[in-house]
Amino acid sequence: MKFPEQNRAIGLDAAVAARRERAELKSKLRSGELTPLRVIEMAKVKKSAAATLRITDFLTTLPAIGPVKMRRILEGLAISDKKRLGGLGVIQQTRLINWVTEHTTGSGAPVLTVLAGPTAVGKGTVVKQLLADHPEIQLSVSATTREPRPGEVDGKDYFFVSDEEFDRMLAQNEMLEWATVHGKHRYGTPRKPVNEAAAAGKLVLLEIDLQGARQVRKSDPNAQLVFLAPPSWEELERRLSTRGTESATEKKRRLNTAKVELAAQDEFDHVIVNDTVEAAAEQLFKLMNGNKQV
Ligand code: 5GP
Fold it and tell me: Could you count the other beta carbons within 10 Å of the beta carbon of residue 13?
C-alpha cells in the first residue's frame, strides 16, 4: 500500500506525462504529420492524449485559426469551449468531422486564401511568382466590366464582360463576392470554378480587393485572409507612379483607395510585407500550405 504523499506524486507524474503527450500530438497536427481527421479518430480511444485534448486547443492548432475564428467556429458547430475531443456527443463529433472535411484540405490547411492589399503593392507580381513556383495552386479568374489593358487575355487575366452580363451573373447568384473597385468598375469572383477546385482538393487563391475580402470572410469564416503590405507609403507612391498605365486622375483615385485599404490590415489573419517578390511569394505559399516545410 502506498502512502498518500506517494499517491499524489504518482498522480502529478501522470498529469505531466499526459500534458507532454498532448503537446506532442499538437506538434504533429501542426506539422501535418497527423491530419485533423486522424486526431478526431484517435480521440475515440478513452483517456488517450487525443481524447483529453481540449476542442479549443485542437482548433487553434490548425493553420490560420486564431482565438477569434476558433470561437466563431465553435459557435457555428454548437460545441462548448469546455469540451475535450473525447467528450463530444455523436452529433457534435459528426458536425466537427463535416466541418474539417469541408473547410480544410487533408493536411488541415484552409482551402481558400484571399490575397488583398493596396493598389500597386505588387499583388500581381507576387501571384505570378507563386504560380511559377507552385503551378498546382489554382488562381481564381475574376470577371470585370473594365476594358482589357494591352496584353491582357480574356479568360486568363480576367473574364472581360459587359455591364449587362455582370448584372446577369449577379442575378443568377453566380458570384462568390463582388465589388465596385476604385469607385468605377465592377469586379467579381465566379463561384463555380472555386467550388470545383476546392472539391478537387486544390488550394485556391483569390486576388481581390478589401470589400471582396470582407464578403469572403462572412461567407466562409475558415478562409484565410492575407494582406500584402508595401515596405512604406513612399514606396507605394513610387510604385504607382512608375507603373505608367494610369492617368493622373486615376492615380489619385487609386492612392485614395490605397489609404483606406492600408488602414484595414488588422482585419487580416496575416500580413506579408512585400520587400522582395520571391520572399513574399514563398511566405504566401507557406501560409497556403499550412506553414509546412516544402
Ligand atoms: P485592376 O483593374 O488593376 O486589374 O484591379 C483593380 C483591383 O480590383 C485590384 O485591387 C484587384 O485586387 C481588384 N479585383 C480584381 N478582381 C476582383 C474580384 O473578383 N473581386 C474583387 N472584390 N476585387 C477584385
Answer: 10
The CB of 257 under 6 Å from ligand 1? The reply is no
Q: Using one digit for the tens of pLDDT, what is the confidence trace for 23-38? A: 999 998 887 778 888 8
Query: Could you give the CA distance from residue 260 to residue 109 in angstroms, rounded to a whole number?
Result: 30
The pLDDT value recorded for residue 293 is 40
Q: Average pLDDT for residues 157-181, to the nearest whole number? A: 96
9 falls in which pLDDT band (50, 70, 90)?
Answer: low
Q: Which atom of ligand 1 is closest in space to residue 213's alpha carbon?
A: 22
pTM for the full predicted model: 0.67
Q: What is the pLDDT of residue 105?
A: 64
Domains present along the chain, CATH in parentheses: 4-104 (1.10.8.50), 112-290 (3.40.50.300)
For residue 134, give Cα distances in angstroms to 129, 139, 142, 285: 8, 11, 20, 8
Residue 92 in this model has a pLDDT that exceeds 90: yes
Residue 188 CA, ligand 1 centroid: distance in Å: 8
For ligand 1, whether the C-beta of 261 sits within 6 Å is no
181 lines ligand 1 (CB under 6 A): yes
Give the separation between CA 132 and CA 152, rounded to whole angstroms. 18
Nearest CA to ligand 1 atom 3: 119
Residue nearest to atom 17 of ligand 1 (CA): 208
